[in-house]
Amino acid sequence: MPSDQSTYCRCLYYSANALARQLSKLAEEEFAPTGLAPSYGFLLMNVNAHPGIQPTEVAHHMMLAASTVTRLVEKLEEEVYLTREREGKAIHIYPTAKSKRLDPKIKECWRALYARYAELLGKEESHKLTQDVFAAALKLEP
Amino acid sequence: MPSDQSTYCRCLYYSANALARQLSKLAEEEFAPTGLAPSYGFLLMNVNAHPGIQPTEVAHHMMLAASTVTRLVEKLEEEVYLTREREGKAIHIYPTAKSKRLDPKIKECWRALYARYAELLGKEESHKLTQDVFAAALKLEP
DNA sequence: TTTGAATACTTGTATATACAAGTGTTTGTG
DNA sequence: CACAAACACTTGTATATACAAGTATTCAAA
User: Fold this and answer.
1) Confidence of residue A6 (pLDDT cuts 50, 70, 90)
2) Which CATH number is A118's domain given?
3) Fewer C-beta neighbours within 10 Å, C or N terminus of chain A?
């Protein structure tokens, strides 16, 4: 219940973080059936769709730092959702059977998440907002 | 350099988080002259503007969990930017001279941050985006 | 008036994320 | 060829944030 007349509402840094936090909460709830936090789910989808993908590519796709991807992949490897294979200086990431088996459920959760915020924000509005927000994120990239 | 054709760009959870991360990076840079991370700066502005404010109110204003506010205030008290006074079950937060002295600089940094993303996103666009993003964050609040 | 519920905050613990520095590999240039 | 620069990843460390459970205070109802 933040005050609408708050000065914060005029700051994109603040607003974007607030929105991200709210959505993260929703996403965590919706991804609960997978037993994974949303970022892990997204990463698995990525690897399932592109077996052999490299951490750097994943980092670019997800707009995360390379070190963050290392950490995520590490955990998912521990839990046998994927494997890493070194090839020279490069690493290739492959999904395991466990990961492939989970893929439909992840996608289901993803759709449920979409349905959830589309319901709260309006279908058209949420679609437009997603585009605008994504475009802005791209423009701010270093 | 995320692929524009990425599936991610259609997910608001993902896009909002990406935007928030980029803006946090900008904000950290712009707030560097204050010696504070952006959240601390915003909190101080809040307390400077509302001496005696309670943590709960701050949490509402900033859309943060109460425990997060406790943590932020704790640090700022250690560094003598503010003081806490208990009154029954309530706590009141007051700025110190140090905090009041810093206030203009914080506001300057805030303006610089605004100028920075307005330049990158376009003035009108960033203004509109801020409104839309804030409105969405409000709608998603529990 | 006692007691149970609500309120306001704190504490323990966990997570996602990043930066900077480190390691190992490849590539290009003198 | 040798060696420096560039690349791809990992590791150490730090931060913001949250949830759940805990403490202390106030309020309401029997």
Assistant:
1) low
2) 1.10.10.10
3) C
